[in-house]
Write a structure and sequence with these properties.
With about 230 residues, the chain is α+β, with helices and mostly antiparallel strands. Helices cover about 20% and strands about 45% of the residues. The protein has a single domain, classed as outer membrane lipoprotein receptor (LolB), chain A, CATH 2.50.20. It has 5 helices and 14 strands. It is globular, with a radius of gyration of 19 Å. It comes from Flavobacterium cheniae. It holds the Pfam family Porph_ging.
Length: about 230
């Protein structure tokens, strides 16, 4: 009897590890009156709001590893999406393995892929009883915040996640996770990722942790960025 039980367990384990799950998210940039009324950035912000509609992302995950990536890179039907993609902070794929997030830096202040930024997954969530349905799944609201430190100072931005205990994985869009269920909707300041397609038990696709770049913590990377910004002005 013990041998039979062990065989069933091994068959189930091998089956569950031979498949991925995939969630596709759309992306929205919400209206921000202060930015829209700004003479300098207003026009650009409107363009990014419009082009965000042409962006989709997908989260591929299983067990202890996940990959979040943009599925549309440059232009689509003449729509330039680069600005919206930069606002999403997900131009580069994000890998989550166990309790760490891995992401290469984008082009800009430093050479592209010069650094491999590693930071712990967010776990300081405030759980609430507020709920709503997303694609017929009951989801619960959780909140946290993310902090940006640059040459202009320290900025704290709110984050709202709607997670689904019925899908028992601790992942979500943009590297967020650590909740008792999959995040199907995430709002980070004015950016919103929303699940539009859920595929459980999808074909296996290899997920690899990035190897390019100098491994560096998120705080170390921010310090380098601040130092470089101050040296230029």
């Amino acid at each position: 009897m013990k041998t039979y039980t062990l065989l069933i367990f091994l068959l189930f384990f091998n089956y569950s590890n031979s498949q991925n799950n995939i969630i596709t998210y759309n992306f929205k940039i919400l209206e921000d009156k202060q930015l829209l009324d700004n003479e300098i950035v207003g026009k650009m912000y409107r363009e990014d709001m419009e082009s965000a509609k042409y962006l989709n992302f997908r989260l591929i995950f299983r067990d202890t590893i996940a990959k979040f990536e943009n599925t549309q890179i440059a232009e689509l039907d003449g729509k330039e999406t680069k600005g919206a993609l930069m606002k999403s902070r997900c131009r580069k794929e994000i890998i989550v393995y166990k309790d760490s997030i891995y992401q290469n830096n984008s082009e800009g202040a430093f050479e592209e892929n010069q650094y491999l930024i590693v930071k712990p997954i967010e776990k300081k969530w405030n759980l609430t009883n507020e709920s709503k349905k997303i694609d017929n799944y009951i989801c619960y609201k959780a909140t946290t915040e993310y902090i940006v430190i640059n040459s202009k100072g320290k900025f704290v931005h709110p984050v709202i996640a709607w997670y689904c205990p019925e899908i028992p994985y601790k992942f979500g869009p943009a590297g967020y996770g650590g909740l008792p269920g999959m995040i199907l909707e995430l709002q980070e300041k004015n950016n919103v990722f929303g699940a539009i397609k859920i595929e459980l038990k999808a074909p296996l696709e290899k997920i690899q942790i990035p190897k390019k770049g100098i491994k560096i913590s998120h705080q170390e990377y921010q310090n380098l960025f601040i130092k470089l910004s101050k040296s230029r002005f």
